[in-house]
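Minutes, project check-in
Item: structure for the 369-residue chain
Input as provided by the requester:
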Amino acid sequence: MPAQAAHPLEPSGPRGRSPLRATAYWTTGPGTGELRSEVLSPPGAGEVLVRTLHSGFSRGSELLVHRGGVPPEVAETMRAPFQEGGLPGPVKYGYLSVGVVEAVGRGAGEVAGGVPGGVGGAPPLLGRTVFCLHPHQDRYVVPASAVHPVPDAVPARRAVLAGTVETALNALWDAAPRFGDRVAVVGAGMVGASVAALARRLPLQRLQLVDRDPSRAALAAALGVDFALPEQAVGGCDVVVHASASGEGLSRALELLGPEGEVVEVSWYGDAPVTVRLGAGFHAQRLSIRASQVGAVAASRRSRRTSSERLQLALELLSDPAFDSLLSGPVRLEELPAAVDDLAAGRRSALCLVVDHPTAPAQEPPCTA
């Protein structure tokens, strides 16, 4: 069967097949969610059909969406790439999905992540394990340019972290720590832990992962990073990356800086008010707070890296097995609504909750050139 073959999914009828259905998780309103069924169209020109293996639920941004905590004025700015509906709901939201390309439309067989096949290009997509910034859904059709092949050295389950590691990579491009720097990461959630996991590969003089939860010491040990409670963290830092999504954490991040140091802020607070202590050394020491957000490639790399190249690099960085320590679960897709309720209520603890999807392939129709 040629790599460019299309798999036409015929409509139901006397001589056709039953339509292919998909199941997706929707946030129906603040604090509520459910699974919904939909009918998929066959992949058209330049599109692929992906059968999901795993997806990841982010305790940060996705819980904000679940709680209805996204400010209306940024709701459009914070849209996920394949989001359906609008905030606060009903909305199909999510961006950490790994699956297998089950069918390709014409012209899509050798295009991935915006990179055409050929010399130095992507391998044929049919049958490949890929990452996509897609909500929790067991099958979906997207442009071939939206999927990124998962390297052979990266297990599919770990690959759900690609979007988070991309955020961490962008934060380090913004922070730009130098040889021999003293660095702290405040907040050992998904993003903070990912920043620390990447930063430990740099030639720093000191790196600490700081969190008020003493149980995160085990996570830091798994990542190979020193851990400190906020009151025990060492000051005089050149750079602090803040990821705790709390005013207390941001205040402590500023306190850990040396003169003229900088905090790179990666937390998303939603509509929560934030109080920060600026009356101590903030002005006297000429400290800085700078935002980092994954929606745009860091300015220091923007002219030389596309967002697709950044995401593909994040996937390559996930060859490090230490990232497995960020994964929790798994839960089955049908269990996701209850699991999200448990996360929101504090009855379940997770950094990245892994959702396992049904693995049976669709009945394969004949291939046509």
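Outcome recorded: The first strand starts at residue 21 and ends at 29.
No further action items on this chain.
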